[in-house]
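Explain this record to help learners:
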Amino acid sequence: MKIIGLTGGSGTGKGTVAARMRSLGAGWVDADAVYRGLCAENRAMLDALDAAFGGVTDENGALDRPKLAKIVFSDPEKLAELNRITTPYIRAASLAAIRAQSACPVVLYDAPTLFEAGADDFCDAVIAVLAPHDTRVSRIIERDHLPEEAARARIDAQPPDSFYRAKCGYIIENNGDLDTLYRDTDALYQILMK
């Protein structure tokens, strides 16, 4: 089994690339979904977040994700603190989920903060999906129902394309139509299967 990191900023189309590779036979672990699961059930992590960010859980102990996002996406130091707290939990749960798919020849580890979390160390290769800035803003607004200012703040809090170009072995440019994205994804999948 090959573990392939899949990364890139918000709104680049990682989910579309992952879905296409899954249709071709790849396994898939979504770091964001792992994180959401931990936010729903991991009391130790939730308590640490609450202590660090001053009341980001509600009266039932559930994480108030919009409140936390507003805090961390406006301050790089707070975003780094969020990652410092959550990374060990996400890493352990993600590795368990990857191991559970050992029958797949390729398992994608879809992680926007793959390098920041040090998760590239367990990947055999890493793919970045990149897209133009304004396209990403539009996608985030549509997908997450955010105001434009919040969408731009989210992108601005993430690494630039040059970061991914320097660190990733493979780049998928998602700046065309869906057929082009599928063609590029299919071609890369065939390379990964060798």
